Amino acid sequence: LIGEDVAIDIEINENVTGAVNVYFGDEVIPVTLDNGKARVAIPDLANGTYSAVVKFAGDDKFLADETTVTF
Question: For residue 32, what are the CA distances in angstroms to 11, 46, 49?
Fold first, then answer.
């Protein structure tokens, strides 16, 4: 859908305390988790295929992790 927002839903263990960021192109979007969940909007995309990387920095209980989403 040209010009529409894309939502990335994030769900991780609710006990994490490390930082979560979404990397989209040159943009770094900090994520605020609420009980391990968050939704990040990427606005006004032109037609095409895109990828974003969701990275968890890790904390004293959980290892760092990342995943790539394509939309």
Answer: 11, 26, 26
Tell me how far apart the alpha carbons of residues 54 and 68 are, in angstroms, rounded to a whole number: 6
pLDDT at site 60: 94
User: Which three-class secondary structure string do you get for the chain?
Assistant: CCCCCEEEEEECCCCCCCCEEEEECCEEEEECCECCEEEEEECCCCCCCCEEEEEECCCCCCCCEEEEEEC
Closest by alpha carbon to 67, among 54, 52, 56?
Answer: 54
- pLDDT, one tens digit per residue, over 3-44 is 678 999 999 999 998 899 999 999 999 999 999 999 999 988
